[in-house]
Amino acid sequence: MSENMHRRRHLTTFQVIILGFAGVILLGSAILMLPVSSTKGSVTSFHDALFTATSAVCVTGLAVRDTGSYWSAFGQTVILILIQVGGLGVVTVASAVTILSGKKISLMQRSTMQDAISAPQVGGIVRLTRFILKGTFLIELCGAFLLLPVFCHDYGAKGIWMSVFHSISAFCNAGFDILGTSENTFPSLTGYTGNIMVNVVIMFLIIIGGIGFLTWEDICTNRGKLKRYRMQSKVIFATTLIFIVLPAIFFFFSDFQELSAGRRFLASLFQAITPRTAGFNTENLSNMTEVSKAVMILLMLVGGSPGSTAGGMKTTTFAVLILNAAATFRSREEVSVFGRRINNTVIKNAATIGMMYLVLFLCGGFIISVQNGIPLLDSLFEAASAVGTVGLTLGVTPELHLASRYVLIILMYLGRVGGLTLIYAVLSKKNAGNAKLPLEKITVG
Amino acid sequence: MSENMHRRRHLTTFQVIILGFAGVILLGSAILMLPVSSTKGSVTSFHDALFTATSAVCVTGLAVRDTGSYWSAFGQTVILILIQVGGLGVVTVASAVTILSGKKISLMQRSTMQDAISAPQVGGIVRLTRFILKGTFLIELCGAFLLLPVFCHDYGAKGIWMSVFHSISAFCNAGFDILGTSENTFPSLTGYTGNIMVNVVIMFLIIIGGIGFLTWEDICTNRGKLKRYRMQSKVIFATTLIFIVLPAIFFFFSDFQELSAGRRFLASLFQAITPRTAGFNTENLSNMTEVSKAVMILLMLVGGSPGSTAGGMKTTTFAVLILNAAATFRSREEVSVFGRRINNTVIKNAATIGMMYLVLFLCGGFIISVQNGIPLLDSLFEAASAVGTVGLTLGVTPELHLASRYVLIILMYLGRVGGLTLIYAVLSKKNAGNAKLPLEKITVG
Ligand SMILES: [K+]
Ligand SMILES: [K+]
Question: What are the transmembrane regions (chains A, B) (predicted)?
Answer without folding.
Answer: 12-34, 77-100, 131-152, 196-214, 235-253, 310-329, 350-370, 406-427
